[in-house]
Design a protein that fits this description.
By secondary structure, the chain is of the alpha+beta class. The chain contains two helices and twelve strands, in the order ααββββββββββββ.
């Protein structure tokens, strides 16, 4: 090995050790703040569905009361502004198959968050990572239900009416909750020195 190559290898080893020492010193002097920032515990936000200004076409599904029940097969929750949603919780008694959608910003543009078949849980927790102002739930099957129709039925005046196919056992949705994450790291006030 030539003397020049040997000196270059020694120089690289010295630089690598210097980088490691600088990193360790900055980590120690920083009071492990960087470590705490990277690995801070995650805390859920308030339930966005209960925010002032939130709207739902099935208000009993987002009223905060587990004793009220929505029988809708399609529920849309509209938030007053776009939110980063990380967890969706659905309390129910009989939902078997359903699809959750996020609104993409223009009429009719919905993207599937998750589809579930064969659910047997009364508390459904869906971890997600979407930023949207609307969430839609579509229930396609309930426990023990079957689709009936299309067909005809008599209305209250005795006239025949055409009816679409529908579930013979309606879904029972007690509550839908939407959560984001809260920043648990305290930030310095603008007039306080950083160090």
């Amino acid at each position: 090995m030539s003397v020049a190559k040997y000196k270059n290898i020694k120089l690289l080893e010295t630089i690598n050790y210097s980088v490691i020492v600088v990193f360790l010193l900055s980590f120690a002097l920083g009071g492990c703040a960087a470590f705490n920032t990277l690995f801070a515990p995650q805390q859920l936000s308030e339930n966005y569905a209960l925010m002032p200004g939130a709207e739902c076409d099935a208000p009993e599904a987002v009223d905060g009361d587990m004793n009220t029940v929505s029988n809708s097969t399609r529920i849309v929750i509209s938030l007053p502004e776009k939110k980063s949603i990380r967890r969706i919780v659905i309390y129910n008694t009989n939902i078997s198959n359903f699809i959750l959608y996020e609104y993409q910003g223009k009429a009719g543009d919905w993207k599937i968050i998750k589809g579930v078949k064969g659910n047997t849980e009364s508390k459904i927790v869906i971890e997600t990572q979407v930023v949207t102002g609307k969430i839609r739930l579509f229930v396609s099957d309930t426990s023990g239900a079957r689709f009936v129709g299309p067909g005809v039925k008599r209305d209250k005046n005795g006239f025949l009416q055409k009816v679409d196919a529908q579930l013979d056992v309606k879904p029972e949705i007690q509550e839908i909750e939407l959560y984001g994450l809260v920043d648990t790291i305290s930030k310095p006030k603008s007039n306080e020195p950083i160090f």
